[in-house]
Design brief:
With about 290 residues, this protein is α+β, with helices and mostly antiparallel strands. It is built from 11 helices and 7 strands. The chain is about 60% helix and about 10% strand.
Length: about 290
């Protein structure tokens, strides 16, 4: 019994360590840093890098468990090179993060958390109808257009290259934006939820050498943004009036309204299912 009592006392002592005021300060500082680090990663291309690193860590753990010595040697000898490569590739993001850190009001950040994670809401059926109507009205008049629909991955970096609009989506507004000889017609429009967030945005061009040579800058930009994000991009050709979409680095050409509606519905359904899952979990908690 004495041994059991000592074991319980030791267990309680281990689970309830002595906490000093300095420990509380350290916890608050670390929580603040980790929160803003995760928030920064989620809003940049670094989020894809983090997912890749998680896969590598799982692979490394698998190699450790089964003593795959050659793989462990390769990982250990390439990790330093990989860190340098990451710093070089993501140098613009790191620089921007440091600039934002210098401009940030720290007390404001500590007192409340940003609600930007709630802005990426699903778009409505009305928005789907407006996008389709605008797309094929532009196609009829052979007016070039580039419409990027944001999904899970934020497009803040590309949004910042354009002119803020922040307006509800309507077919009339989209048509007017891409009208020839208007100030906003050049570049891409970015849609988030039921709103047009920015116009005249610059997108990265795809460097895929296997693309058809008859594709112009507009199509290469549409494919380029789909290679670095999970967005759905609608492209209207100025030469032929044909409608294409770019997803996952692939271009699907000469689509009709029904096919475009199905793809928009898929994107809409994906976000809706996530929301339903959250509501279902909350309901179980209430019922419990």
């Amino acid at each position: 019994m004495e041994a059991i009592r000592n074991f319980i006392n030791n267990l309680v002592w281990l689970s309830l360590p002595k906490i000093n005021p300095t420990d509380i300060v350290e916890i608050i500082i670390l929580a603040f840093i980790i929160y803003h680090l995760v928030k920064w990663v989620k809003n940049t291309r670094a989020w894809s890098l983090v997912k890749g690193l998680v896969v590598i860590m799982i692979f490394w753990l698998f190699a450790v468990i089964f003593e795959l010595n050659v793989i462990l040697w390769i990982i250990s000898n390439t990790i330093s090179v990989g860190i340098i490569a990451v710093i070089i590739v993501f140098q613009p993001e790191f620089r921007k993060a440091l600039e934002q850190l210098g401009q940030k009001n720290l007390m404001k950040s500590i007192l409340y958390f940003d609600d930007s994670r709630d802005k990426n809401e699903k778009f409505s059926d009305h928005t789907v109808n407006e996008i389709i109507r605008a797309t094929f009205e532009l196609a009829k008049t052979k007016t070039g257009a580039l419409i990027v629909i944001e999904e899970d991955m934020p497009l803040n970096d590309f949004e910042n290259t354009g002119i803020p609009i922040d307006s509800l989506i309507s077919s009339e507004l989209l048509i007017n934006i891409f009208e020839h000889n208007t100030p906003l017609h050049d570049g891409a429009v970015i849609l988030r939820g039921d709103r047009i967030v920015a116009a005249t945005c610059y997108l990265p061009l795809s460097d895929n050498m296997q693309l058809s040579k008859d594709l112009g800058t507009r199509h290469r930009a549409g494919i380029g943004i789909s290679e670095v994000s999970d967005s759905l991009t609608i492209i209207v050709s100025e030469e032929t009036g044909k409608v294409s979409i770019a997803m996952g680095g692939k271009l699907i050409r000469n689509i009709d309204g029904d096919y475009l509606r199905s793809k928009l519905s898929d994107a809409q359904r994906k976000i809706t299912e996530v929301k339903k899952l959250k509501l279902w979990r909350g309901k179980n908690k209430d019922e419990g």
